[in-house]
Write a structure and sequence with these properties.
about 120 residues, Methylamine Dehydrogenase, Chain H, 12 strands, Bromo_WD_repeat, signal
Amino acid sequence: VFLASKTAALFLYTKAYALVFKGSDDCLVKIWSSFDGRLHSTLRGHSAEITDLAVNYENTLIAAGSCDKTIRVWCLRTCAPVAVLQGHSGSITSLQVKELQSLYYAVCFKRGFIQCFI
């Protein structure tokens, strides 16, 4: 994952599906095919800049953190929304998706504070 500061875009790549994920200040997460460069899907729902992206280990879910203080999760197979995680008091600055005994949880960090969503 790297941040391209000029375009305010965040990119993530997964080998499993050969997809490139882009989140940026347009509030959208776009999924591109790395085989032919075509736009696969556009995921909507955030109302502010996307700050981080994470894909789960099985490559079935993508989560996006945003300055709108929420984390949104989509199914990668159908691109349907799965969850909106709310309750953070500030912008989501870092996001990780982990699996713990078949439960997924998202962890976000801000100024030394950690919040977990299950």
